[in-house]
Design brief:
Helix content: under 10%
Structural class: mainly beta
Number of helices: 0
Oligomer: single chain
Distance between the termini: 6 Å
Order of helices and strands: EEE
Shape: globular
């Protein structure tokens, strides 16, 4: 299963997180804050899809 931005295709990987935007490596998708946005295009978390 992959968690992918529906707008730009950026893939969230829990093992990497997004430390530049406050999400530490190892953070499960369900634990990513609701106000987090895609680091490439700014799409909100609810715009990501499971593939």
């Amino acid at each position: 299963m992959a968690i992918v931005c529906d707008a730009c295709g950026w893939e969230y990987k829990a093992e990497l997180g997004d430390p530049e935007n406050g999400v530490e490596p190892g953070t499960a998708w369900e634990d990513v804050p609701d106000d987090w946005t895609c680091p490439l295009c700014g799409l909100e978390k609810d715009g990501f899809v499971e593939e």
